[in-house]
Fold this sequence. Notes:
Largest sheet of chain A: 5 strands, antiparallel
Number of helices of chain A: 4
Low-confidence stretches of chain B: none
Number of strands of chain A: 9
Helix content of chain A: 25-40%
Shape of chain B: globular
Low-confidence stretches of chain A: none
Oligomer: heterodimer
Amino acid sequence: MRHILSILVENEAGALSRISGLFSARGYNIESLTVAPTEDATMSRMTIVTIGSDDVVEQITKQLNKLVEVVKVIDLTDGNHIERELMLVKVRAAGKDREEMKRLADVFRGRILDVTDKSYTIELTGTGEKLDAFLQAIEPGTILETVRTGASGIGRGERILRI
Amino acid sequence: MQLTGAEIVIRCLQEEGVEYVFGYPGGAVLNIYDELFKQDQVKHVLVRHEQGAAHAADGYSRSSHKIGVCLVTSGPGVTNAVTGIATAYMDSIPMVIITGQVPTHAIGQDAFQECDTVGITRPCVKHNFLVKDPAQLAVTMKKAFYLAQTGRPGPVLVDIPKDVTQAKAEYVYPKTISLRSYNPVTKGHAGQIKKAVQLLLEAQRPMVYAGGGVILNNASAQLTRLVRLLGFPCTNTLMGLGGFPGTDPQFTGLPGMHGTYESNMAMQNCDVLLAVGSRFDDRVIGNPAHFFRADRKIIHIDIDPSSISKRVKVDVPIVGYVGDVLDEMLKLIESSPQRPDAQSLKEWWGQIKDWQRKDCLKYDRKSALIKPQYVVEKLYEITGGDAIITSDVGQHQMWVAQYYKFDKPRRWINSGGLGTMGFGLPAAMGAILANPGATVACVTGEASIQMCIQELSTCKQYHLPVKIVNLNNKYMGMVRQWQQFFYGNRYAESYMDALPDFTKLAEAYGHVGMKIEKPGDVEGALREAFKLKDRLVFLDMITDQSENVFPMVPGGKGLTEMILAEEL
């Protein structure tokens, strides 16, 4: 099962490696990991996407909570939540493909951030599936470069993660 | 008050009431050593290898419930200490390790004696800090001592660059500290405790399985009261020996890989298992699938939520300090008119007595060779069962755990989790300093003792009269045993060739050495050694090379699939 863990952690040097080290030391899997400071600069928020049985994810949560710098951990997939990922993709856009590429970017509500006479750099946000779908929709040979942030997530409605 | 970083470190140690620091100087810690030199409240014990410093601080802590402190320099000082730090981490021993680091401006430059201390030790400490700002030093030291001893205890490391020990900062030692990200649950959940008590009172075939948590939390009085009040059988793990008295008729001996037949049968066949400060370790429960096949209810008390349902699913988890939880349980039981059904309990004890009749710890007492078990039994007799015994790792460790009946906590000091050879002698140094006047023996083997033998020199310098009982079978005995059982008698590299003459070696270090080759001489030699109260005596006992540790649950087998002595 895919789980999205949201973690509030002290914004201190070494906190990230403590967390990533825990995953590798105990053989847990990280699909993606994003981190940045919150509105309170002393704290960072991390989103980790992991795949594991409920037992394994329970252990991961407990082990994360045990780290001294971890303030709070929740499993977003326990309830309703929103997840978004950002992708930048540079594609070949020359000749007859150019118009088609623009049209597809529009269909996926992408934005073209950078243009040359041979390429577009497109920004896309959405769930991981949506970004995958875009990459599948375009001609594979036209993809020059992609970069993705991994998922960020937040609970729906009144579900709030803060201290 | 403006103080240098080095002065601050020493002031913090004084403030924490630290008696001894085990350490080894070097470039990056020279300022700290200079401040140590200028005072006499905190005493320094100079080891001969940093591994010894960490083990000595560890043994000091295990035998006293005080925090062990060690101080080493950057680079190799740290890497040498890592084995000792990992040993303490695996057994949840509260320790503070202070390490020197190259100056802040040199960090990351591959400077002389630089290593990424915080990175190297991260997976084997409860927490660690790199202090780059002298103004943060006092508060960081306070955090280190606080973290080491609260919640599930463990080693905490403070890495201090040399320039930070030189720079001045305002010194205020905080009286208390709180961390928003660190709030261990210490009080057990009342509802869960009630549920647990109900299960215990309704149990027909109960078993108590107590581990190192009982020792660490000083909860053996509560455990003993509970077990006696209920009349239940009780087993103590390798880390928990002494938590419940070893001579009590309700004690069934060690559980697990080298546990007694009766403990393992009872663990498997009970209907209610009360696990107290124990963690269902692979050496204790054998194959988890086999263990779980039995239909029993499990109550698990532990300070660490991540210990619960990690290897074995439990029915009633209780997170909290084991002492507090046991107190609450005792209150409920004492105020309840209900008692476990006497008839069922009688039948259960009848079953356990049947298992005990197997006499699984019997060995050949008529042998012309010295049997290691016999040495431990004699050691038990001669020390009145009241010595602090440290051990290294291997067969000798198991024999002490099986044959020395520890009645009190903090008398049995061994590396359970990491299984570190070389632990015994330095740990004995720490134990003897923490318990002046106590009888301290280190039971070891000729392979293990050589891993930290340099500490004989430290023992000489500080007059530490450890009695070393070397069960010398000229083999890495446990490795040889596995090779005999599982590798067709192919004894690959487990033979100890070119051994030193241990008697002469002990004498060369300024101690007393004795070599004992006949069973008839064992008792006399032990008596003579323990009479030499202020001398370290190295007893080189030449034991039966072919002796094995029984019972044995082979790796991957179920807990009740034991090999017994007579089956071979």
